[in-house]
């Protein structure tokens, strides 16, 4: 009985196991039959889509799936909350799909997904605001994706293209689709093979990539008509610049792409066309939505390219009609894009033609050609042009033949640019500055510069400079400038100084210099040379624009007319010309061969304006000034005064004039003397040896002075050159010795006068120049024709006319001495 019960239990167990095994074996087939017949209905019932499939095969054990001739469309095409699908798939094949992981852990894993002849239109639904909180993204692991002969078009909920491709053939291996970081690429892979046409890929909210054809083979890629297209307005970008890039052909070898980077060994870009649009943003902040992608290209060549840089309103600020560029080790990422230069690089060779640069609304620059090789730069044919006029800004025009820069070493640190150059040479520059008319009430403060510039040497070869008014009138010219400036620097420290830069040493040589010196005069110099602390000027000429008659007609009041020339002037400075000059400190100034002619016409109305003494003239100079010595050599000074109704002007002149002037200053330099001392020697009227010593204290508010001198062997005939036309009389006789020792201030001159003379006679003349005998004889009775006892000393005192100069007061003092010694002290 027990044996029968045991046998029966065995049969039940065997039967149960057999049935179970049968079910296990049959389940996939039954499930496959069920899914084949019911899956379309389930999809159609449970999803917003309608699906038709001609064939469906699924192996639950192996995880292999095969579907043929799929047709899909959205039930309600107007429902924007649902992703819209429409199209067909010729064949969908999935290998080694993990069914149970997909069911229980939301992990989808497959060895292969192969799609043949897909033709799909997709319109993505609008993302829900709380979608990120409520929905967890599934984990997807796919070893290989194959797409053959695909046609795909995808847009977002607004109808903007997300992806488009025709004749798509793709083979991706080791695919990474698990990405919670929207700033990285949405897909990663280790091996890529793509062949497609009419490609559109929306990288993020700001840029799209477009291409007519894309082909890859063994880590090489070739793209036809590539376009990196910005999709937003410039103001919407969290960057200083927006890039629009096009290229006829793009090829790269040894290409590696992952979520974070795009790296290529060698890149060739044919006919690139780059447009850079400024966003007018000086500071940008990190934005988590912007692409966090690093692009590294070991060697990149751009051939026959074009460049356009424009403002946010599309106004052109720079361009290049043609460029060929080779750059090595270029890096472009989220950090560099925020810098002054949006990428980093190692070496570069550049060949650019027809460059345009707009400095501001009134100034532009055009360059014929720029060429770089091995850190050297050559710039040819630079043209400066003004755009209209601007009364508040200096403008520039002209042409520079060539600029050469050697060994450029740039370094970028955030917004700072450190630029080191071994040498810069400028050849044949012909430049004009159009001066602004309105001067700023206050000089603007210099802003901190982002540039630290160091140049070993700057050389100017055969440069020419002009300064023009806004109407084109010439104000100044400098011809044939040849110069060298060593160790030139600009940085934050130098910008705080008056010169804004520093130079270790320099040498400047020029040809002819012309300066419009104001309303009445011009200044010309044959040549000038400056070497650090020493300046040399040759053949200076300070001339009037008018002759004497013209000058007298155009002046409203009496005014001196000057004519000054100098064979040479040497200036010995205490500091270099380009050092910071808070004060003017000179060791010595030497003037040789000066010829100064002064003409004064008494016909115009008198100028009653008060004249200042030399003390006050120097004291009123604002800049602290001190010159140890001024030497005047081999010079000539004359003064002519045209008396009313006289045919010939009266003339005083001093020939063989030599003088030493010490302590020329304004009393504003600490530790220097305020007493100016003049020691002069010359031949009065060309024959009479004369010595003069003159001192005055600049800081004395009464303008006190002392002056003494002596004149020997002065013929009356020479004195007549001035006395006859001015006083209408002549003198006969000889002045053997004349000496004066005067002192005074701005109001008076007084002191001792001594005269030794022989046979002095006075001859009065009528209007015809004939001698008035009776009057002359009567006066000569009072004149002491000969000095008795070796000469006579008298005391003089004369008040100064406030509207007359110091020299007029001195002359009156001498005339007063002559009067008292020749006639009588009582008259």
Short overview:
The chain starts with a helix and ends in a 5-residue tail after the last helix.
What would you note in describing this structure?
- With 827 residues, the protein is mostly beta strands.
- It is built from 9 helices and 38 strands.
- It has a 38-stranded mixed β-sheet that branches.
- Strand 36 and strand 37 form a beta hairpin.
- It is rod-shaped.
- The protein starts with a helix and ends in a 5-residue tail after the last helix.
- The oligomeric status of these chains comes to single chain
Number of helical runs? 9
Question: What radius of gyration results from the CA coordinates?
Answer: 49 Å
Give start-end ranges of low-pLDDT stretches.
Answer: none
Total strands: the figure is: 38
The average pLDDT value, as a whole number, equals: 83
Distance between the termini: 184 Å
Based on secondary structure, the structural category is mainly beta
Shape, principal axes of CA atoms: rod-shaped
Helix content: 10-25%
Characterize the main sheet: 38 strands, mixed
Percentage of residues in strands: over 45%
